[in-house]
Amino acid sequence: MKKTYLIKYVFLLLFIFSAASVFAQSGSISGKVVDEANQPLPGATVTVKGTQHGVGTDVNGNYRLTNVSGTVTLQISFVGYRTSEKTVSVSGNVTVNVNLTPVPNDLNEVVVIGYGSEKKKDLTGSISTVTEKDFNTGDVTTPEQLIQGKVAGVSIISNDGSPGGGSQILIRGGASVNGSNQPLIVIDGVPLSNDAISGAANPLDLINPNDIATFSILKDASAAAIYGNRASNGVIIITTKKGKAGKPVISFNTQLSVSKITKEAPVLTASQFRNYIKSVGDSAQVAQLGTANTDWQKVIYQTAVSNNDNLSISGTTGILPYRVSVGYDDQNGVLKTSDLQRYTTGISLSPSFLNDHLKIDFNFLGSQQKQRFANTSAIGAADSFNPTDPVYSGNKNYGGYYEVLDPTSSDGLKSLAPLNPLGLLEEEQNRSTVYRAISSLAADYKLHFFPDLHVNVSYGFDGSNGSGYTDYPPYAASQYPGTIVNGVTYYGSNTKYKATTDNTTMDGHLSYAHDFKSIKSHVDALAGYSDQNFSTTTSNYATYFSNGIVNPTTIPTYATGIGQYDLTSFYARLNYSYDDKYLLTVSDRSDISTRFAPGSRTGNFPAAAASWVVSNEDFLKDNHVLTQLKFRLGYGKTGNEDGIGDYEYLSDYSLSTSTAQYQFGNTYYEGLRPGAFYPGRTWEETATTNAGIDYGFLNGRISGSIDLYYRTTDHLLATINEPALTNFANTIVANVGNMQDKGVEFNITGQLITSKDISWTANINMTINRNKITNLTEVANPNFPGLLVGGISGGVGTTIQIDQVGYAKNSFYTYQQVYGANGKPLEGVYVDKNGDGIINSSDLSVNHSPDPQEYFGLSSDFRYKKWSIGFSARANFGNYVYNNIASSTGYETNFLNGLGIIENGSNSVLKTGFTTAQYLSDYYLENASFFRMDNTHIGYNFGKVFKSTGDLKITGNVQNVFIITKYTGVDPESTTGIDNNEYPRPRTYTLGLNLTL
Amino acid sequence: MKMKRHTIKMMLLAGIVAVSVTSCKKNLILSPNNELTSQQVFSTPLGYTQAMAKVYGAFALTGNEGPAGEPDIEGVDEGTSDFFREFWNCEELPTDEAVITYTDPGVQPLHSMSWDATNAISQGLYYRSLYQITLCNNFIQQATPALVASHGITGADATTIAYYVAEARFLRAYQYWVMMDVFGNPPFATDATKIGSTIPPQISRKDLYAYIVSELKAIDPLMVKPNQNQYGRADEGAVWALLARVYLNAGVYTGTPDWTDAITYAQKVIGTSSYGLIPNFQNLMLADDSLNTISGGGKTSEFILTINYNGTKAETYGGSQYLTHAPVGGSMPPADFGISGGYDGSRTTSNIISLFPAPATTDGSQFPSNGNADSRAQFWYPGQSETINSVLTFTDGLGVCKFRNVTSTGTGGSSLTYSDVDLPLFRLPEMYLIYAEATLQGGAGGDAGTALGYINLLRQRAYGNANGNIIASQLTLQFVLDERARELFWEGFRRTDLIRYGLFTSSTYLWPFKGGVAAGTGVASYLNLFPLPATDLAANPNLKQNPGY
Fold first, then answer.
1. Which of A512, A545, A802, A841 to probe the B interface (max B CBs under 10 A)?
2. DSSP H/E element including A278
3. How many angstroms separate the CA atoms of B318 and B125, rounded?
4. CA A597 → CA A600, A640, A651, distances in Å?
5. Residue A508 pairs with which residues in a beta bridge?
6. How many CA atoms lie within 13 A of B45 on its CB side?
7. A671–B101: do the CB atoms touch at under 8 Å?
């Protein structure tokens, strides 16, 4: 029986790799490589000493070395660990398990830095790395989720719970006000554009997290400045998995997930609603109460089942290490009609030629994503729709959905009344198909006659094609009152969209490295040139009515719009180390961007950093408690140009649409509007000073780092008011103002138990960040009233946040609520801040910030024999959220509104008793500090299956396990600080299976 | 060694190539494929016309994409950012003519007269008016005779462009009048300085008055003759009408009245015989009001200059869309207003109702004027109470039916969502009323009998017969003010009129919720001027705030 399995397996392998594999009859060695905590070590190399014959270990640390005979010596190596040697006599199949121990007092781990790599011990900047073994597990569908909560100073908040909804990634709080705060992401040497991809909510979505091997996060300027432009918000360098030496390893994993919402928005239930309307409404309003009991949120949400499959093959054939992967992801959202299917493929080839003098690295990531976006306005409609009305009307009007009617109106619908939430979802088809390819080809040539010098040239491509449409049937209530063309009324619509992006990077650099043993020095130098070109072509289409007739007012003036810009850069870096004790890095980068006017295009971004490895000094060398201690100090400048348009220094004229014409006589003319311009705009510059300590105790069993940083942003890209009469806009993004961030990051990892059967590792990281705007005007003006931001739903044009000098960006700007003796807020009674007897906008005051003041990540992994169990959790403190659902619906005139209909709303009305909206009251500003258990997981490793040829691991995961918070709304975590009917983040249960052959 | 040298040479060569490529990049201009440079725009007659369409369009539209999407003005909701909606809000909401339910930023402080320098509505008007002035300045700079000739444009095309320039100067003067009336002492720039080259200085109300008057007189001979221009474009009649309006308020603007010039210019308009009253007052503010004719077959009826709207070609949430949607609510039938549904917003107060005779019925059966002898009394009674307990309750206060997106034959406009109703900035009856008021004030050249005749023309049209005519002794200044309220109701005059009569802030004349009090109360007189927006005070160091703020 067992024999058949083996034969089947061999046949399978032969079938797949007939060309690549040669099977020896002599014998084989297999086994597992584990670390000091008995955790498997993926990527360790096992070679037969004195030969090129070797393999890499798979994700579970297993290897299998075939075609060996006689007595051989195995060399087992892994960066940061002592190379182990074992002598084995091979006859048939032998098992050799290996425990590797870390190199004491040393961190030889190689870290990817900008344009190269460096040993961790030689780093001078603040760089965090996360490798595969530390990635988050479970229902991880986008790359950034792999490291959520893992790195001090990096805040990753998912935008919402929708499939492919993406995340806000903030490194040290972000350095800009109106520019982008997204870090620069570099995948296999290709710097990605932060521009949106048409048809995809989040560009990172299109990358399969299963193809990623490591993240390097360059947090301070001394590390990031080599990326100069766009590096102000930090840099995330992603390296994908590569082929390992040896025979092919097949890895397959599959996951099945079930998601549900965790909490409904707190609105009145049908019976509460009945009682409330009866208590406050008049007879006409009470008469509108129906007999149904509809929980509209139950109607629009569903239990969603998703699955995710990944298959990869990696190994080396001849001189060609390769890895090929395919992935399939099928996600269904908890909001009905939202889903996503993604197919991905990854190819990595890394051959060497000329005795390893020439190394070629080719990477390709391709994906196709098909998505249906749900109409998220259904979420707000579900809060508002009368819960005593039924879901369906029983007749065929408006698609059969129950709607609020008004016999006097021309289309029979009550104007401005909420529409049936389920109808909003099911009567909108918003679908997209997006393709993306990220590819890089790099050649590194080590000069034959001067091997210290490398010449590296690379070409990178990042392209996408996104298209889609939004379609409404003619009977959809949202399509009334229809559009009149030449006296005929048309209903329904179909709108197409399409955009392609085409970004290329050409890079060439020379690098030099040499050990000057006689003077105990090591020098590492780099100089290069890069040219990046970004281009987006958007196609414009007319809208068609359901009967196929074109809507004449939507015919576009231009068939396409092309946006492009070009970045040209020189960069250079010098690393010097003396006696492994004193390290120095200096770098400079000069960038030229065509987004600025000639004359203000060039930005220079220098950096310098030094570190002192105290533990390599004689007085600490033999200390067995404090085994690592390093001080780091760095300063650098980085730039930012995201958040501005490609051509905004020009004042070009744009033609109005056909719906914005003006009539002279009997002719309508499209107008030509001069565009606002800001010729003086240039790079936003961020200067960061960073001081850090890396420490390790007991040979690294306890290790971590502490960093202090101070960051100032100059030439802040901020939206300012232009003096009236001086431009064709009253506000413009200008280089005005200054902002500062101060912060502390702390990180500690402990290998608390490291015995053969039991191991326990825990990590805590903590970040404190304080942000303050220090100037917002061209000439510093302490009386500057600030810029109102943060539009809310409810009052048209009402804002709840302000950017004001002396306060954190996007701070809340509210009236201070006065409370009665019974603890209830008094309607419309606010503290008269300036004491002038009138409550007006002069009494608004700057309140808390939406950003956390402190945030923590906490993770723990515990293993007992074949079981593993762990969790990762995050906590935020001092983050405030404006409860916009409560403020825009929790008052009497919302329930009994001016439209003459009754609507549902927030149950906060029962607490406040407000009759009218009190948008600007700080009553709605809530402390949203929270502790969230992001993930708990349990795994069982079956170990060898299929007669020791495969490895099987089964895992169970729960994501978004629980949350502890005082916040009264659905979810305290918000990227904007304004909670307004977000797509809820679900709780997800995942069952996973991992099989390696 | 030899090879090393070779490498160095290669590196040098690579370096030289990189440096030369870079110097190209330093000056490389990438320009958008779907926009035009000013060189391209101002090289053809059509380009000038389309640029002029934007200069005029800044009156009606809120941006480059109807109804919304590419706004002209930031910091205010785009739908509210058109000229006439902002102007109407500042002219009507602080008075007895209008209350509104909206709680959008800045709206309620208007009626309660508790606005401050951060008021979103007055700020929106400020930036809108100055934006249009900036467009005018730019156009005038691009259309100098020398520049036009340099593009090879001659003959009739060049003549048209010369008229455009005069009209741009007129529009600029009109918007400076708005600034002078509403804000008093605004920043000031003309085409004499390059846009953006200097921070504009502040101009005093008095100096601005002198500028407006001299500018209007300067362009008078350059304009197309009265009623001879294309519909929607300004002509000499508009220049005279604006001069008449400016002179009427000279006492407010400069401290010295100029009734005589008011009479002169009102009479110039009246005397052209190009304009006349259309027979039916109720056809004035309808979807096909551009087709109204006077009994003799005149071209554009009594409209001297209009802002043109169109439900499909000029989509906006402002202007007449606002005036046809916001007042509809309660039991008012949207279909009668040519709209899909009302916005439950604005109503009027009992002060205005009391200026008219009692209606024949209040059951809504005789739409729109309820059988009122004065056909201008177009109000909605059913479900509405004349008493206002809360300005936020739509059914408190009477509904207004003056602006309707239906044609004179009762069919709907081109859209149920937007509006076809064109709004007059100037129409003939205002000139009759200016003549009468300035004559009563003792201006030279006015004749009391002529004044009475003009007023009775309005009365006769309103009543459909002579029953409403008045006699000489009834023609008082108070009567003229009341007649202005009846004739020009909700057309954007009331605040200016009440200020001229000294009734706007004082406790002499009260209306519901004046000063935020149900019975009405007097407020501080500094409120006769709106404040300059705090945002511009911060951005422009040359500006000083109006006193009181």
1. A841
2. helix A270-280
3. 12
4. 6, 16, 11
5. A457, A529
6. 12
7. no
- DSSP 8-state class, residue A137: -
pTM given for the model:
0.82
Is residue A660 less than 8 Å (CB to CB) from chain B?
yes
Cα–Cα distance, A132 to A118 (Å, whole number):
19
Please return the burial class of A196, using the count of CB atoms within 10 Å of its CB with bins 0-12, 13-18 and 19+: middle
Of B187, B343, B538, the CB nearest to A725: B187
What gap in Å lies between CA A811 and CA A927, rounded to an integer? Answer: 13
Give the residue ranges of DSSP H helices in A847-889. Answer: 884-889
Helix (H, G, I), strand (E, B) or coil at B120: helix
Residue A781 identity: N
Q: Which of residues 391-410 of A touch B (CB under 8 A)?
A: 406, 408-410
Bigger pLDDT: B264 or A799? B264
* Beta strands A731-735 and A54-56, pairing class: unpaired
Rounded Cα–Cα distance for residues A185 and A240 (Å)? 13
**What sign results for the dihedral spanned by CA atoms A799, A805, A806, A809?**
positive
What distance in Å separates the CA atoms of residue A313 and residue A20, rounded to the nearest whole number? 12
Contacts of A481 in chain B (CB under 8 A): 340-341, 416-417
CA neighbor of A172 nearest in space, from A186, A194, A152, A190: A152
- B213-232 tens-digit pLDDT: 999 999 999 999 998 899 99
Say whether the peptide bond before residue A143 is cis (omega within 30 degrees of 0): no
pLDDT one-digit tens code per residue, B402-427: 999 999 998 888 888 999 999 999 99
Q: How far is CA A680 from CA A239, A598, A673, in A?
A: 38, 10, 21
Query: Per DSSP, what are the bridge partners of residue A864?
Result: A758, A867
d(CA B34, CA B41): 13
Rounded to 5°, the CA angle B23-B24-B29 comes to: 130
What sign does the dihedral B510-B511-B516-B517 (CA atoms) show? positive
Determine phi and psi for A335, rounding to 5 degrees. Answer: -85, 125
Q: Which of A485, A562, A671 sits opposite B33 (nearest CB)?
A: A562
Sign of CA dihedral B186, B191, B193, B197: positive
| Neighbour-count burial for B434-456, b at 16+ CB within 10 Å, e otherwise | bbbbbbbbebeebeeebbbebbb
Of A410, A669, A724, the CB nearest to B126: A724
Q: How far is CA B455 from CA A120, A953, B448, B481, in A?
A: 92, 96, 11, 12
Contact status, residue A209 vs residue A142, Cβ threshold 8 Å: yes
The string of pLDDT tens digits covering residues A705-723 is 999 999 999 888 888 888 9
For residues B113 and B511, give the distance between their C-alpha atoms in angstroms, rounded to a whole number.
Answer: 12
Omega prior to B327 cis, within 30 of 0:
no
Phi-psi region of B196 (alpha: psi -120 to 50; beta: other; left: phi over 0): left
Cis preceding linkage at A248, omega within 30? no
Rounded Cα gap, residues B470 and B459, in angstroms: 8
- Judge whether B540 is closer than 8 Å to chain A, CB to CB: yes
Question: Which residues, 6+ apart, have CB-to-CB distance to B209 below 8 Å?
Answer: B180, B246, B250, B253, B254
Give the separation between CA A81 and CA B310, rounded to whole angstroms.
Answer: 77
Of the pLDDT bands very low, low, confident and very high (cuts 50, 70, 90), residue A12 is very low
Structure tokens at A115: 């344009």
Rg value, chain A, Cα: 31
CA pair distance B316, B324, nearest whole angstrom: 12
